[in-house]
Amino acid sequence: MLRDNTTRRRGLRHFSPYNRGVERSDGMRWRTVGAEYLFCNPWCSFRVDEVELPDGVRIGYGVLESGGFAAVVPVTSDGRVVLVKQWRQPVGGFTLELPGGGVEAGEDPREAVQRELREEAGYEARDLVHMYSVHTSPGRSTEVCHLFRCRAEKLDRGPEPEPTEFVSAVEMPISEAREKASRGEITAATTVLGLMLAGGS
Amino acid sequence: MLRDNTTRRRGLRHFSPYNRGVERSDGMRWRTVGAEYLFCNPWCSFRVDEVELPDGVRIGYGVLESGGFAAVVPVTSDGRVVLVKQWRQPVGGFTLELPGGGVEAGEDPREAVQRELREEAGYEARDLVHMYSVHTSPGRSTEVCHLFRCRAEKLDRGPEPEPTEFVSAVEMPISEAREKASRGEITAATTVLGLMLAGGS
């Protein structure tokens, strides 16, 4: 079940901030000897790499491959932020997070953000500004989040989520969302990062 | 290969900010019908849940189970932050991140931070303050990061990393680390979050 995953990640490669933070030349690097895919679907894969550590010891190392996603801090003209509430199977409950979604192969993360904000929340993204591109869990996963902020302008037609997306939009003053993050009521790392660093009151 | 993972996560459950942000009662919840573990080792597991969506459709959903970790923004009396450089197999390169490590079952995340700061970087953590406990990737993984800040006091004996940890400590003014995060040269989400929100100049 070995395969080349170049194609699925192509959508991220062209986005300049991606991988600037990853240095590749050093005597302490691990050497990858083999890899076996245990699971592949369109959204994520799981592989076990056989790696040789700098001291020559070989171990199996589990890696989650997950396509990148883009998320946005959408702030309305009256200082409210638009979030989405959705079920998150890994944490076994509902979370409040920034609107966003997967970046498809070859897609600009800005387009992904605009599409998801329209579909999930019914807002148009204006004055979109890139904040950070971060690895959500570099010790476990290939996943990258491209984080943006924008002015959010309400669309007359309202949200139009995909039939398989069970999300609802939730609006609140950004100050309230920040308090929720401080109290541990909003817990997604990239959502906390975006809310706290997007500026505005 | 089904198993109960209550025990391995016990170390996180007692830490109060964990899971306050996860709401469990709502008509849009997914129903878990089954689960199969494809991989388990002491550090992470990968399972595929069979879930029933609110519209009755059943799908397989891949979940990475990863024990929580604790990380700290350690700032010296002259405004320098202590980071660690290490190989990260999922991103295929070296990263600069906050010192930290896994929270063992039953362990207080504060103890984990103090131990890792001593071992990886050769510093004692003083005035440890909890900042956030966040889900690194709630759509893909159970992983939680408990984020702290502290004053860092250099130990005479220097770092004493575990023989299997190939990490090196890197010190720089916290202002420089923040610039690196802004330029995309530091990319781990929880490291960016910690650096930007730890306060101090």
UniProtKB/TrEMBL annotation, chains A, B:
It comes from the Bacteria. It comes from Rubrobacter marinus. This is NUDIX domain-containing protein. GO terms for molecular function: pyrophosphatase activity. Residues 64-194 form the Nudix hydrolase domain. Its cofactor is Mg(2+). InterPro entries: Nudix_hydrolase (IPR020476), NUDIX_hydrolase-like_dom_sf (IPR015797), NUDIX_hydrolase_CS (IPR020084), NUDIX_hydrolase_dom (IPR000086). Signal peptide: none annotated. Keywords: Hydrolase. Belongs to the Nudix hydrolase family.
